[in-house]
Amino acid sequence: MLIIDSKDCENIDKALKKYKKKFEKARVLLQLRTRQSFTKPSVKRRTQVLKAVYRQALASGKIED
């Protein structure tokens, strides 16, 4: 649960802005999306390796974006 400390004279827009920033930093939506479906650890590792290979190919100039 996110708690925002606001002063009595503070504008509601500023409080909402603080809440949105805190919400993004907490990565609540990312956690919800990852928990919706289970992925096996081997599949996670495979995707990480493929991403690393792709990034390395981009850095070496083999793939042009």
TrEMBL record:
Pfam families: Ribosomal_S21. This is Small ribosomal subunit protein bS21. Belongs to the bacterial ribosomal protein bS21 family. Keywords: Ribonucleoprotein, Ribosomal protein. GO terms for cellular component: ribonucleoprotein complex; ribosome. InterPro entries: Ribosomal_bS21, Ribosomal_bS21_sf. NCBIfam families: S21p. HAMAP family: Ribosomal_bS21. Coiled coil: none annotated. GO terms for molecular function: structural constituent of ribosome. Gene3D superfamilies: Ribosomal protein S8 (1.20.5.1150). GO terms for biological process: translation. It comes from Chitinophaga costaii. The gene is rpsU.
